[in-house]
Amino acid sequence: MLAFGEVQTGLLQNSVALPLRATEHLLSNEADERVRSVERPVARSVSPDRLEGVDCRLPTTSGRQTRAIGTVVSRAVVVAGHVAQGSAYARVAPARTTIRLPWSHYLASPGHLEAIGKLDQSDLEQGVLTGARTADTLELSAIAARMLDTVQRSRLIDHAPPLRTPRVRLRWTALLDRSVERPGGTFTLVSEDVRSLQLRMPTTDLSAVVALCEDLAVHDWLLTTVLSVLDAMLAHDRSRAERVSRLKPLLEHLPHLWVPGAHVPEELMPIWSALDRRPGFTRQWERAMDRVKNQITIGELELLESVATKPAR
């Protein structure tokens, strides 16, 4: 079985971290469905799933016209009251008939797409990971973005974030097959704000795979945010005071969020651990945070020296 999805991650547009109960209120819907939350090792709340009915072409690099009918699952996630995510995903399999069935048939299998026409899994994987699309192609990025935008535009937050940060997209595919002998993943930086993740997994538990991808997306966003702020500070000739004031929020709001695999099921932790070793997320994170601390220390020392050397009046 092939599954694929997209996760978009950004800083929640609020001046402080939301408490857990406020986060649950933010993610609740009009149907009063339950928001799923955990508090440890780091708080995480997941909105009720939303189903999107689709009838469109699958993304392919070859241009193959494979029609897919079914539903896509989408949801919003908030981590530690600070990081917001929009997530959309589905699994796909060949349809048993070339005739479109009543929607009740597709709604009975949430997150399942039935492919009409030849389904080339390799072609579909590359289409998803490279963002191949035409006017009538399934676009999970739009669905994920809508979930994240709904949270960010809510009147329940103050829209005064302590940092200006990028929104980062993670496209992912996962071949789910118990016969996979060498599970693993390939993580790629596609552009400044787009990443891809190709997985091979000896499991059919799609919910576990989605949790892995969302957790990886959070940590990639954390690292990207710190590096982008550092690069912006060092690329321009800013005053010492301005440099310190822009870097300090990184230390105040982000370090406690770095808990790799915090919500990844135990059976998939070897995959996360392998990705953490190469490309080495934690090593890069530690070095980046050391740079932040050093820049703040140097800036504050220079400010103290400038005050001490000012002639007395």
Question: Which structural traits does this protein have?
Answer:
10 strands; elongated; single chain; 313 residues; SCO2521-like; 10-stranded mixed sheet; alpha+beta
Explain how this protein is built.
The chain has eight helices and ten strands. It starts with a strand and ends in a 5-residue tail after the last helix. By secondary structure, the chain is α+β, with helices and mostly antiparallel strands. Strands 1, 2, 3, 4, 5, 6, 7, 8, 9 and 10 form a ten-stranded mixed beta sheet that branches. The model has no long low-confidence stretch (mean pLDDT 89).
How would the blueprint of this fold be written?
Layout: E1 2-11, H1 20-27, E2 36-38, E3 44-46, E4 50-57, E5 67-79, E6 83-94, H2 103-107, E7 112-116, H3 121-130, H4 140-152, E8 168-176, E9 184-189, E10 194-201, H5 206-235, H6 240-253, H7 269-277, H8 281-308
Parallel strand pairs: 6-7, 8-10
Antiparallel strand pairs: 1-6, 1-8, 2-3, 3-5, 4-5, 5-6, 5-7, 9-10
InterPro entries: SCO2521-like
Helix and strand pattern: EHEEEEEHEHHEEEHHHH
Q: What's the count of strands? A: 10
Mean pLDDT: 89
Shape: elongated
Low-confidence stretches: none
Rg, nearest Å: 22 Å
Distance between the termini: 77 Å
Largest sheet: 10 strands, mixed
How would you summarize what this structure contains?
By secondary structure, this protein is an alpha+beta fold. The chain has helices spanning 20-27, 103-107, 121-130, 140-152, 206-235, 240-253, 269-277, 281-308, and strands at residues 2-11, 36-38, 44-46, 50-57, 67-79, 83-94, 112-116, 168-176, 184-189, 194-201.
